[in-house]
Specification:
Blueprint lengths: L3 E5 L5 E6 L8 H6 L6 H10 L4 E7 L4 H14 L2 E10 L1 H6 L4 E4 L4 E4 L10 H26 L3 H9 L2 E4 H7 L4 E2 L11 H18 L3 H9 L5 H14 L1
Parallel strand pairs: 2-3, 3-4, 4-5, 4-6, 5-8
Antiparallel strand pairs: 1-2, 6-7
Length: 241
């Protein structure tokens, strides 16, 4: 069963849907039945054939990190990509999502990032090679997350170690997404503070206009009653010279 489909439109753009487990190779059944190749290499050819803007819908639990890397690279090379997450972008699918120039997520959707996984058998050297492969693979994934979010490698590494699930609001707050689907971000400006400030200025102007300037001048010219007042009056007199 294919995990992707492409619908091209008349302006040279297209809509790519990634749904289900991401695989690197064509399934045996599809191959035996002679069905069109719908593996990751084939999706890359489709992406390269698109000339205009590309919208990528993602609803996937993940899959092959190598297939996701190839798709991520093809999308980044294409440019003008908008990613829309309608349900889940987990594991390798979250890596693909990072290729979007703009990433929008449904308010009910989830993202999840974790360390890459593998299975291995053999002697101690085989296990060491598997561990090294996982470490290097993680470095590449961290680079994609860092570029999109601006978070540090240490912070992202910790999130992957802990297998972090993110709601739409959390993904947006941390920079994994840019906004919510179906959300009207155009909010009227909050002028309440400005209005309060203007009112206070009006009050001050009103008070000044009612000030008895003659009485104030006379009070300032009275004989100082303390040394401090006398010193202040002396400094004022010097400043007027």
């Amino acid at each position: 069963m294919s995990f992707w489909s492409v619908n091209k439109n008349g302006d040279g753009g297209a809509e790519l849907r990634i749904e289900g487990k991401i695989t690197s190779e064509q399934g045996l059944l599809e191959w035996m039945l002679g069905l069109p190749d719908k593996s990751a290499p084939a999706i890359i050819q489709e992406i390269r054939s698109v000339e205009g803007p590309l919208t990528v819908w993602i609803n996937s639990p993940g899959g092959s990190v190598f297939a996701a890397s190839a798709i991520y690279t093809a999308l980044r090379d294409h440019g003008n990509v908008t990613v829309k997450i309608d349900s889940e972008a987990c594991s390798a699918a979250s890596v693909i999502a990072m290729a979007g120039d703009t990433v929008l997520i449904s308010p009910t959707a989830m993202m999840m990032i974790h360390n890459p996984l593998t299975s291995a058998e053999g002697d101690i050297h085989d296990m060491q090679r598997a561990m090294q492969m996982l470490r290097e693979s993680k470095d590449g994934i961290v680079a994609a997350y860092m570029r999109k979010t601006g978070l540090s490698a240490e912070e992202i590494g910790r999130m992957m170690d802990e297998t972090t699930f993110m709601s739409a609001s959390t993904a947006i707050r941390l920079g994994f997404a840019d906004g919510e689907l179906f959300s009207d971000n155009a909010q009227p400006p909050d002028v309440s503070n400005l209005m309060r400030s203007a009112y206070r200025v009006s009050e001050v102007v009103d008070c000044v206009s009612k000030l008895d300037t003659t009485a104030l001048r006379n009070a300032l010219q009275e004989k100082p009653k303390t040394d401090a007042m006398r010193a202040a009056q002396l400094r004022l007199a010097r400043a007027r010279r």
